C-alpha cells in the first residue's frame, strides 16, 4: 500500500498534523500570521507579538509485541485516517514530558488493553515524508486482557510468520527485520 494517501486532505488529519501554511491567526494574540524567513526557511510569524511557529516532526513510538508461547504478534486495526481499517503495530505520539519508553508502554495499553515489558529497541526511523519520527520497540505481554481501545478499532494476535501486510511501509520494514531475526528467509521483493 502506498504512503501517499497520508497526504490527502482529511478533517481529522488536519488538526492532528496541521501544516504551517494552515495557521491563520496567532495563538497568543489572535492577530493574523504572515510568512517570514527565519534561519533560511519561511515560517508563520506574528508581526504583532513576535510569535514564530517552529514546525517540527512529531516524535512517536510503535511496539512489536511478540507472544513467545503462541508465537504470535499483536496488531491493531486503525480506527482513524489515514488507512482506516489497516493493520499496524500499536503505537502513537509521545506526550510532552513523557519518556519514550513510557509512551510505548502506554500506547500498547491504551490500544490493546495489554501491559507489556519492552525487550529492546529496533531503531528510530522517519516516515516517508519525514513528518513523523518513530522509535520501534520489541516487547512481550506481561499482564492484562486484550481489548481494543483509543485509536484502535480492533486488537488481535497473528502468527508472526503469516501476519498480513501492514498499512505503513515503515511498519512493514520493521516486521521484515523481526522476521529476519527470527530466522525466516524472505525473498527480496
Ligand atoms: Zn501574536
From TrEMBL:
The residues covered by the Nudix hydrolase domain are 56-180
Is Nucleotide-binding given among the entry's keywords?
no
Question: Which InterPro entries does this chain map to?
Answer: Nudix_hydrolase, NUDIX_hydrolase-like_dom_sf, NUDIX_hydrolase_CS, NUDIX_hydrolase_dom
Molecular function as annotated in GO: hydrolase activity
Query: Keywords on this record?
Result: Hydrolase
Cleaved signal peptide residues: none
One matching Pfam family, short form? Answer: NUDIX
What PROSITE patterns does the database record attribute to this sequence?
NUDIX, NUDIX_BOX
Task: Give the family, as the similarity comment puts it.
Answer: Belongs to the Nudix hydrolase family.
- Return the PANTHER family for the record: ADP-RIBOSE PYROPHOSPHATASE (PTHR43736), DIHYDRONEOPTERIN TRIPHOSPHATE DIPHOSPHATASE (PTHR43736:SF1)
Q: What is the protein's name according to its record? A: NUDIX hydrolase
Lineage, please?
Bacteria, Bacillati, Bacillota, Clostridia, Eubacteriales
Amino acid at each position: 500500500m502506498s504512503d501517499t494517501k497520508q497526504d490527502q486532505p482529511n478533517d481529522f488529519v488536519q488538526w492532528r498534523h496541521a501544516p504551517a501554511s494552515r495557521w491563520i491567526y496567532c495563538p497568543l494574540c489572535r492577530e493574523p500570521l504572515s510568512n517570514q524567513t527565519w534561519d533560511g526557511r519561511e515560517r508563520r510569524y506574528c508581526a504583532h507579538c513576535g510569535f514564530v511557529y517552529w514546525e517540527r516532526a512529531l516524535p512517536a513510538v510503535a511496539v512489536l509485541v511478540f507472544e513467545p508461547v503462541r508465537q504470535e504478534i499483536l496488531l491493531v486495526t486503525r480506527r482513524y485516517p489515514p488507512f482506516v481499517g489497516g493493520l499496524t503495530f500499536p503505537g502513537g505520539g509521545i506526550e510532552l514530558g513523557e519518556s519514550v519508553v513510557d509512551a510505548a508502554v502506554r500506547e500498547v495499553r491504551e490500544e490493546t488493553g495489554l501491559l507489556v515489558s519492552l525487550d529492546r529497541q529496533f531503531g528510530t526511523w522517519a516516515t516517508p515524508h519525514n513528518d513523523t519520527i518513530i522509535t520501534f520497540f520489541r516487547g512481550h505481554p506481561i499482564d492484562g486482557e486484550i481489548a481494543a481501545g483509543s485509536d484502535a478499532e480492533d486488537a488481535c494476535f497473528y502468527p508472526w510468520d503469516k501476519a498480513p501486510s501492514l498499512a505503513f511501509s515503515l511498519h512493514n520494514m520493521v516486521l521484515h527485520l523481526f522476521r529476519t531475526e527470527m530466522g525466516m528467509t524472505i525473498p527480496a521483493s
